[in-house]
Amino acid sequence: MSAPSPAAAPCAPYQMRTSRLVLRCLEPDDAVRRQEAVDSSGAHLDFMFRQPDGRPIPLETHVASVRKSRGSFDLDQDRFYGVFEPGTGRMLGETGLLRRAGIGALELSYWLRRDAAGQGFATEMASALVKTAFEFDQVKRMDVMCAPDNTRSAAVARRLGFTFEGRLRDRQLAPYHERGDLLCFTLLAAEYPHTPARQLAVQCFDFLGRPLP
To answer: What is the mean pLDDT of the chain?
Structure first.
């Protein structure tokens, strides 16, 4: 008699809903939505999408990014969520949990289109992932890395209760990032209960759309 198959690991949330946002795993047709969000934002998103020649990023590049993000998500590696308006389906940005932070840790990333800035969306979508990382993934630490001139990202980290650890010199976290200094912020599991993210109401759904506890 064959041995029983091991129990499957709990499925990470494929979709999350807050009071104003839908966060979900990216689908193929999100490449067009992503291109529109980036192109309409101009220099506002240069920290994420700057090209050496200054030209807009072609659709094929967005397609490749969505494919890579989806593959990584399905393999329980890095998890990137598209962030959308519930009523219109308009893409507002992306937020992600990256495993390059080390054992027992996740790095939080986020970007928001220009015309959605200043409305609290970045804090809300980042809070949803902070809550997920500590309550679902049970991490010990979360990191946020951003360029010194990216004051908006740094402000979100501080609002979420992250502590400024220091300035890391001469870093490049990804091929499409410019090399330079980075600001490092961290949040520990013991600190999480005292953060705004702990109080955020989030509905989570699995791969099949079933509610998660």
So the answer is: 93
Domains of the chain from N-terminus onward: 15-205 (3.40.630.30)
Rounded CA-CA distance 27/63 in Å is 10
DSSP letter assigned to residue 210: P
Residue 26: is its pLDDT beyond 60?
yes
Considering only the C-alpha atoms of the chain, give the largest distance between any 2 of them, rounded to a whole number of Å. 63
Q: What burial letters (b/e) apply to 102-133, b meaning 16+ CB within 10 Å?
A: eeebbbbbbbbbeebeeeebbbbbbbbbbbbb
Which residues lie below 8 Å from residue 90, measured CB to CB, with a gap of 6+?
33, 37, 84
| Between residues 177 and 21, the one the model is more confident about | 21
DSSP 171-195: E-SSTTSPPEEEEEEEEETTTGGGS
Q: Which residue has the tokens 């001469």?
A: 170
Mean pLDDT of 117-141: 98
In this structure, what token pair is assigned to residue 27? 């689908």
Per-residue confidence band for 213, with pLDDT thresholds at 50, 70 and 90: confident
Nearest-CA neighbor of 97 among 116, 76, 114, 113? 76
